[in-house]
Amino acid sequence: MPDLAQSTFILPQDATLTIAQAALKQKIHAFIMANYQADKTHLLIVSGDAGSGKSVVLDAAFAQLQQAARAGVGPLAGTDNKLLVNHNEMLKIYKEIAGAKSYFRKKDFMKPTPFINAYRKAGKRADVVFIDEGHLLLTAPDPYNNFRDANQLADILQLARLVVLVFDFHQLVKLKSFWTPALLKRITSGYPVAHFQLTEQMRVGDAAVNDWIDQFVRGRITPLPHPEKFDFRVFADGQPMYRLIQQRDAEVGLSRLIATADYPFTVLDKKTWYVTAGSLRLPWDKINFTDRPWAQRPETLHEVGSIYTIQGFDLNYAGVILGPSLGYDAEKDRLTVNLSQYQDKEAFKKRPDLADTQAAKIAIVMNAINILLKRAKYGLYLYAADPALRQRLLQAHDLGRE
């Protein structure tokens, strides 16, 4: 098995949870022990920003649960528990873990729709259901993926005694899985709900850089911090950025180019689609039919990744291409979003029930940028396709050195 701890939420064997993560793991265990015999469904919602370590804790807590479930004796022995994730790449990792741990089975890990259909058909409830990347749960019918109901979370709550839901409103990337606080409250209003929030940043290796990213996705461009232990740069052209990514990959591995969905692509045909960044032209990633994460496959050094291949995973160094949907208003000194340039048409699939789809679409674009910018542990490199934004970022880069 490849070293999944390098690029995923899986902890290395000699690593330990932080104090906050250990507290959450204990909270999950206490939540299960207090409520596993209850007839009424109980819900625990875990929130936190990208890179806060939510999946790390979920994996550790689910391992603890399944060890107890597969023990010969004990209150949780024989319980029927599942971990659901609506993300193909992350599901591959969970299933690969299952093959290496005696207390896991591959059937413990599922996508939401197959779980809903199987348990509804069997007329039964699971004991405990963990949901990773809960913000990817569908909030509208999706016949292509065999989901014909209105809301996946509503269905899961009917099919489980206990639900542990990991959720981040800043990682919503499609209208068909678009959540608002009001919708989440409405879906969960009939159930006892507990909350826990993780606030540490476990991925981006510098607090000032993380703060800069938070300001950026709110539309503000501030001088770039230049910390000693995190390499943060802006490039005038994509080619030198790519050369540096190649160098970093040779030095420490797990260094890749990733981009916003502003360059044409289709998912299921065999055509090669390209991303351009100044003089640089590289192919988009393609559907990963292997069992290895996209960033761990050597050939993907010569591709450009997307939110669909990188969400939920870590890089050591990330070169982010900000495509033409992101612009700059010099008078207001603010970012602008041109929705007509965004090429992920599936993300904007019509939702007549949403009151303000324009605002939702802008939020989706900025959420995708937040996800991309928070992939890297040791270095982040930026190139902007829009000339005005590129110039403003280069200026911010230089101002940060003064």
TrEMBL record:
Superkingdom per UniProt: Bacteria
Q: Name one Pfam family in it.
A: SLFN-g3_helicase
InterPro entries recorded for this chain? Answer: P-loop_NTPase (IPR027417), SLFN_3-like_DNA/RNA_helicase (IPR018647)
- Any signal peptide, and if so, which residues? none
For the Schlafen group 3-like DNA/RNA helicase domain, which residue ranges apply? Answer: 42-386
| Record-linked Gene3D superfamilies | P-loop containing nucleotide triphosphate hydrolases
Q: What is this protein called?
A: DUF2075 domain-containing protein
Q: Which organism was this protein described from?
A: Lacticaseibacillus rhamnosus (Lactobacillus rhamnosus)
Lineage start: Bacteria, Bacillati, Bacillota, Bacilli, Lactobacillales
